[in-house]
Design a protein that fits this description.
3 domains, single chain, 4-stranded mixed sheet, 18% strand, alpha/beta, Rossmann fold
Length: 565
């Protein structure tokens, strides 16, 4: 055998060795990628949606990474009967995806168990552990509080704090439009909004935060009742239920009957009083504020009651002036888009993101481009900034042309020459106890329990924006609910709860066949094509590449017939 033939065989053997090695390395890379993808600790998700609907809010992430102990989420999902089977399945699928994202943030402290509804024995055993009688299509969030002081007095020792999150409902995972079963006007059930993140986080906070912060609603001055869902459009029953679902405790307070405000009161809400507070009540409120108290103040919507309530003087004591008239906004004709005035409907002001200041209360509105309805509002003005603090406009009347105006009694709902036709502040956030310029904390108010807190007040030019007539209206309630939650959370110094808003109910994802095809291409076809390309290149090199015969011999790289021994 000639030397050139031996060299050719060695060269070909080396090429094939490289090909086999490249293939082995590619296969190893595929297996390693699949193994790493299955590890929760290294798995990463990327939200490529335009609205961020596939990720959780930063405040949610903050709560998840700081869980005080193990939090368990038991998933009890089952099919719903017709005609709700599709919407139920959509909510369940969306919730499962959300739980996967939350698990990545919560790590080992978050335990998620998906129960098989056909396992009657296992489900009954878990019901006994949680002390639950009935079982809905729901999630159950539970946490075993280590301290007796943080436990529900109604639960025996060893039983975890737990909260049920139903599939649908005001405090559920999604808001449901039940549709219309009438054959002549049939409308299929639909999901109006997906609120899974808010609902699950609210349940987590309820079972982990210990004693919930207390909101006291003033009474005895003609205020709308915050504890009755009796259909009174001027009441605040829906507001109270929203705050309860958001992890607050609520109770009524009357200075003449109860004396001083409770020591654990976090926020005092004075919503549309019609008669003034007594001297005893005023001193109690002043004492509350001197200890770092927080207030939510809403002026009466009836201008004739503003002076009678004495709330205008209350506003002025904090440096905020209130306008006696009603702020109005021209409406546009649906057909001609021309401005329309002359009716009380113009007193319903719609604030858009451009009308909102840079404040935590309205942050989600600016991010989600949501409007806010402010009916029958008085204009507000900051006449005096607080010492070592800041008062800033949160919501203003529209500045777009034609602009808003203040309609004064007697009302004709038409802008007159003598009336104020400039944009008005409708909501003002007032805080004291810190140096706004330098950002340094200043101890100005210390409560009896030793906790240092800054004063916070939210001045509302309209209490109607929180009434049942608005929050219970399906056309306006979904837009005003986040504001109602946000202003009380901000007042109670719970900014981590402020920024969460409802997600788009549409579940947008690629078809399963497309996802499978993408995975196949990324994990198998691309590496295989690289291997085949290497084989092709090596073949071409062997045929006409560097292993050419010396001059005078065959250009095929093989020995001439006369070279054989």
């Amino acid at each position: 055998m000639s030397r050139s033939k031996s060299v050719g065989k060695i060269s070909r053997a080396g090429i094939w060795f490289q090909v086999v090695l490249a293939g082995a390395l590619a296969l190893s890379a595929v297996l390693a990628i699949n193994w790493l993808a299955a590890r929760p600790g290294v798995r990463q998700r990327f939200d490529l949606t335009a609205t961020g609907s596939a990720s959780v809010d930063a405040s949610t992430r903050g709560v998840l990474v700081a869980l005080p102990g193990e939090v368990h989420i038991d998933v009890f999902f089952r099919p719903e009967p017709a005609p709700f089977e599709r919407v139920a399945q959509d909510v369940q699928t969306r919730t499962s995806e959300l739980l996967e994202v939350m698990k990545l943030q919560g790590g080992d402290q978050l335990k998620i168990t998906r129960h098989n509804m056909s396992d009657a024995v296992g489900i009954e055993r878990r019901k006994l552990e949680l002390r639950i009688r009935g079982l809905e299509n729901c999630l159950i969030v539970s946490h075993l509080a280590p301290a007796e002081a943080d436990r529900d007095a109604n639960l025996p020792e060893g039983v975890p704090m737990r909260e049920v999150v139903p599939l649908f409902g005001r405090h559920g995972l999604a808001a449901l439009d039940p549709g219309n079963p009438d054959r002549n006007a049939y409308r299929a059930p639909a999901i109006m909004s997906f609120d899974g993140e808010k609902a699950i986080l609210a349940a987590m906070l309820k079972v982990t935060q210990g004693r919930a912060p207390l909101i006291c609603f003033s009474r005895g001055h003609g205020e709308g009742d915050a504890f009755e869902l009796n259909g009174d459009p001027a009441g605040f029953g829906i507001l109270e239920s929203l705050l309860t679902a958001d992890g607050f405790r609520t109770e009524r307070w009357s200075g003449t009957e109860n004396g001083d405000l409770p020591e654990d009161c976090s926020v005092l809400a004075i919503l549309e009083p019609r008669t003034p507070f007594s001297d005893i009540e005023t001193r109690s409120i002043e004492k509350f504020m001197a200890g770092g108290g927080r207030l939510v103040l809403a002026a009466p919507t009836d201008p004739g009651l503003l002076e009678a309530s004495g709330l205008d003087l209350f506003y002025e004591s904090f440096g905020v002036e209130i306008t006696p008239g009603i702020v109005c906004e021209p409406k546009r004709d649906a057909a001609t888009t021309a401005p329309v005035v002359g009716g009380p409907q113009v007193a319903y002001v719609q604030a858009l993101p451009d009308d909102m200041g840079a404040h935590p209360i309205t942050g989600p509105y600016k991010d989600a481009a949501q409007p806010l309805r402010v009916p029958a509002a008085h204009g507000l003005r900051v006449a005096r900034q607080p010492r070592l603090g800041l008062a800033q406009a949160v919501v203003r009347s529209p500045r777009r042309a034609p602009g808003s105006w203040v309609d004064e009694p007697p009302f004709n709902w038409i802008p007159d020459d003598h009336e104020n036709q400039k944009a008005q502040d409708l909501v003002i956030a007032w805080s004291r106890g810190f140096a706004a310029e330098a950002g340094a904390e200043v101890i100005e108010a210390t409560r009896a329990d030793g906790a240092v807190r800054e004063n916070r007040i939210v001045f509302l030019g309209s209490g109607a924006m929180l009434q049942d007539s608005i929050l219970g209206d399906p056309r306006m309630g979904p837009f005003n609910e986040p504001f109602a939650r946000n202003l009380f959370n901000w007042a109670a110094d719970r900014e981590y709860r402020v920024s969460i808003s409802s997600k788009d109910p549409a579940i947008q994802r690629a078809p399963a066949e497309t996802v499978t095809r993408v995975v196949q291409v990324a994990l198998w076809y691309l590496p295989l094509s690289c291997v085949l390309m290497g084989v092709l290149v090596s073949f071409l090199r062997r045929r006409g590449g560097p292993d050419r015969a010396p001059t005078g011999q065959s250009g095929s790289g093989q020995d001439s017939p006369g070279s054989e021994a």
